[in-house]
Each structure stands twice: as C-alpha cells, then as structure tokens.
User: Which sequence fits this backbone?
C-alpha cells in the first residue's frame, strides 16, 4: 500500500514537500516514482529514484524538484520548490516493477492534489 500526502494550495514560487508512506512491500528493492496528472492531460512521470538513489526528472522540473527516499522508514519524498501554475495536478507515488525507472510501475498511491496559484 502507498499513501501519499503533503499536497495543498500554494502561491507561485512557493514550496511543498510530498511524502509517500509504503507498507506491505519490499520498498528498498524497487524504483519509486512520482507521477502527476493535470486536468485534461495524460499522466506523466515527474521523478523517480532507484534503490541506490539514482534519480530521474522530467525536463520541466529539473532544478526545482528533488526526490529522495528513506528505505529504513519505507518513505518516499518529493521536495518541490519554485512551483509554477503549470505544476498544478494530482500527484501520485508509484512502485516500479523493477529497479529501473523506465520499465513500468505496478502499484499506485491514492494521489494528493497540488494547486499552484498565480
């Protein structure tokens, strides 16, 4: 089970930190990712982190978002700085099918809404 939290309403330029608590899975063995889906748009992979903490970021968030993980606490994080209105979306955490960020994800959290006002 994956439980995301930390979303909210923030002004442009502000920051939020999302958390994703994992239970019932071998958290430390898989890549973990953050997806987002804006209204009317397809879901996109925003960031991912392997078990060894190698990271991936979509171009639009590079330099603003940072993902990290605490394997001892089975928790995934997404620090979002310099937020823009176009970052508004529902954010989901997800577990990969392997330890590679580009081979798919097979378990999803419930999503947390992030709204950035201009």
Assistant:
């Amino acid at each position: 089970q994956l439980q995301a939290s930390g979303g909210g309403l923030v002004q442009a330029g502000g920051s939020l930190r999302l958390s994703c608590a994992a239970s019932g899975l071998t958290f430390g063995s898989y890549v973990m990712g953050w997806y987002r889906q804006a209204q009317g748009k397809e879901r996109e992979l925003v960031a991912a982190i392997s078990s060894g903490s190698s990271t991936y970021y979509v171009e639009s968030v590079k330099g603003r978002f940072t993902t990290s993980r605490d394997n001892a606490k089975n928790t995934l994080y997404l620090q979002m700085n310099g937020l823009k209105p176009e970052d508004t979306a529902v954010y989901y955490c997800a577990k990969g099918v392997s330890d590679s960020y580009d081979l798919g994800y097979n378990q999803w959290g419930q999503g947390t809404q992030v709204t950035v006002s201009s």
User: Anything to note?
Assistant: The CA atoms of residues 1 and 23 lie 5 Å apart. The chain has no helices and eleven strands.
